[in-house]
Amino acid sequence: MKALFALVLFIVACRAPASDVASLLAADRAFCADSRARGVDGWVAAFDEHGSQVADDFSPITGHAAIRERMRAFFAEPGTTLVWEPDDARLSEAKNLGTTTGRWRASKREPDGSVREVASGRYFDVWRKLPDGTWKLLYDVGEADPQR
Question: What is the mean predicted confidence (pLDDT) over 12-28?
Answer without folding.
Answer: 75
